[in-house]
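So, is this right?
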Amino acid sequence: MNPSLLPSLAWFARIAHHRSFTRAAEEVGVSRAALSQNLKALERQLGVRLLYRTTRDMSLTEAGQRLLDTLQPTLSQIAQMVQSLADTGRAPSGLLRVNTSRLAAKALIEPHLAEFYLRYPKVSLELIMDDALSNIIANGSDVGIRLGKSLADHVVAVPISPALSMVVVGAPAYLERHGVPATPDHLAQHNCINYRRSSSGALREWDFNAPGKKGRHFTQSVTGNLITSDDQHMMRAAVQGIGLIQHLDIAVQEYLADGRLVRVLRSWSHHHEGFYLYSPSREQMPSKVSALRDFLIEKRKGMSLL
């Protein structure tokens, strides 16, 4: 391959990532006109069109998408290697982009931000709140945080929370009025706040394990007079005594600790893997990534759930 193509290929990847000549030009430090001319020259050399461009919009051609899909992992590995070499013997520094669910950010990162910055003052964090399981290479993130059951087999991941449980909780006032369910079957007589998945539009069924060491896992539909696609709204409604909810124990921890919510059906709780910090590769891991990984592992050791 002609080495002179490498800068143009890298610039094309930034244009495609941002879907904007202006933002890509600002990032690589050249003028918008220079970037546009460079892309046209690349298209002439390759003999294919890579982008559809109008005054208002930009999209990849089929050839452009294929090229980008090939370039992204390779450029990411090169960037990690260069950063790793630059990091040798230096304190962790630079921008660290973390793709994370809102719940993981609230429970695992936000409580420790001040301590992290005190320990690593040269590291800047960008938290990309994304409740879908995104391709962290494609969206330009350094690492991601997701539940273990959601991870692809090829990623490198370390646990940063204890194992978690799906728990059923309600306000003391609600339980006093309506009684405490003894089994999941009793939920048919209760007002249960439903959660609608934004990804599929389906209502989430509640997860249970039958009591006993080897109790089988099963799901159950519930009914009630409130449906929401926001878990924070769901918890606030439960605190008001509107009905019962099911959520991860780590999400309702503060409400259980101060008594605003009470756990029920404890022996029927469904348990699964906790949150993991994951990255595409263990090789040439930048020191800023290692710093966050080790920091969150340290915090995990001190966590306990009610």
About this structure: The radius of gyration is 24 Å. The mean pLDDT is 87. DSSP finds ten helices and 15 strands in the chain. The longest helix spans residues 62-87.
